[in-house]
User: Fold this.
Amino acid sequence: MAKALEVAYAHLDQEQAEITQLKTYFIQRLKALFPDLQFNGFSEDLAQSTYTLINVQLPVPKDKIALLDFHLDLKGVACSKGSACQSGSSSGSHVIRAYTREKKVLIRLCVFLFHMSTPQKRWTM
Assistant:
C-alpha cells in the first residue's frame, strides 16, 4: 500500500495538469453544445473546484436524456444523473428537482468525473 501511494504521489502534478486540461476542454465543448447549461457549485471555476469533477444542469428534455446518455456512453464518457444519497432511486436529487421546479425549466443534472483513463483524443464532441 505504501509503495502504491508513493508511485501515485510521484506523478500527481503531471496527472493533475493533464486532467485539468481535459476538464477545461470539456467545459468549453459543453458551453458550445449547450449555451443554456448551468454549473452547480464552483465546478466551472478551476481555482475553486476539484480538478476531477464537473457538475452541470443540462437543458435537455426528459425524453431525450436517455439518448444523450447512450451517445456519451458510445464515446466512453460516463455521466451520473444522481448522487450517492439517491443511490438506487429513480426519482433523482430532491434538491435539483426543487431548484428546477422554481426555475420552470427542463434541466437534467449530470456529473462527469475525470481520471487518467479518459483521454481527450477519444472525444469528438
Summary: The chain is about 45% helix and 10% strand.
